[in-house]
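4.2 Preliminary Data

To establish feasibility before requesting continued support, the project team ran the inverse folding procedure on a target of 255 residues. The structure was first converted into the token representation described in Section 3, and no sequence information of any kind was made available to the design step. The complete token record follows.
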């Protein structure tokens, strides 16, 4: 796992992020939602309104709405937003980057990034989140990831090229507009068979941006590892260990 989490060069970040401009339906079908404890961590300070940036297909957006918040959703992928709009037809969506949403200033008590903070320029995105938040509002960053502290899962993540796996103890970089963040972590598992493991792999930016030759190699390696090395039948459901880690930080008072 990287010694410095979240830090990707701008050119490489843009190249990998472009993988999510298409095939949003398949992403939405295989990516998990977030544990209730993570949602409660996000909402501890009882915000009324939220802006979910990098919302993708709306997985966490929907959880915020079900919790009773007034939510606006922002993502740079029009296709992702189209999937979100099918799920949540009444929600206001904005097709924009997290660094410049175009939304009005001082308009929300909460800004969230679920599985998305590693796709933005951190100083610019911090400044934009601070601009959107009320004084004392909160920025929360969440990630679902394979629990690579378990050796067999670590090897699976490497074969999948799961690029959103970070060291949970490393703080994400935030701008000076925010206080020192608080951390939460929750362990859980997701029941998957081999076909779903492949679909989960296909939802990753590495796979989406690779050549057909590389994709075939990744799938062959997965088949060997899952079936021959671990000894699972293709249709067998296996509990795959996951964890969710989140960071929340309060916006400093404007001067």
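Position-by-position output of the design step:
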């Amino acid at each position: 796992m990287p010694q410095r989490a979240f830090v990707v060069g701008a050119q490489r970040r843009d190249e990998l992020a472009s993988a999510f401009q298409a095939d949003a339906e398949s992403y939405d079908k295989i990516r998990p939602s977030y544990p209730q404890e993570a949602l409660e961590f996000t909402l501890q300070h009882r915000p009324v309104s939220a802006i979910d940036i990098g919302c993708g297909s709306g997985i966490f957006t929907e959880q915020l709405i079900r919790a009773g918040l007034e939510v606006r959703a922002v993502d740079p992928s029009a296709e992702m937003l189209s999937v979100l709009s099918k799920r949540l037809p009444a929600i206001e969506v904005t097709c924009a980057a997290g660094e410049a949403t175009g939304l009005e200033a001082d308009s929300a008590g909460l800004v969230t990034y679920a599985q998305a903070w590693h796709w933005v320029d951190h100083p610019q995105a911090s400044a934009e989140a601070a601009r959107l938040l009320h004084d004392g509002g909160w920025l929360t960053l969440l990630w679902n990831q394979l629990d690579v502290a378990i050796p067999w899962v670590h090897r699976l993540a490497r074969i999948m090229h799961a690029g959103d796996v970070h060291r949970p103890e490393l703080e994400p970089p935030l701008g000076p507009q925010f206080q020192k963040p608080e951390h939460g972590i929750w362990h859980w598992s997701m029941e998957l068979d081999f076909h779903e493991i492949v679909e989960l792999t296909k939802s990753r930016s590495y796979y989406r941006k690779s050549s057909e030759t590389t994709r075939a190699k990744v799938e062959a390696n997965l088949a060997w590892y899952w079936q021959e090395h671990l000894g699972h039948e293709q249709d067998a459901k296996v509990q795959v260990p996951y964890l969710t880690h989140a960071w929340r930080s309060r916006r400093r008072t404007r001067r």
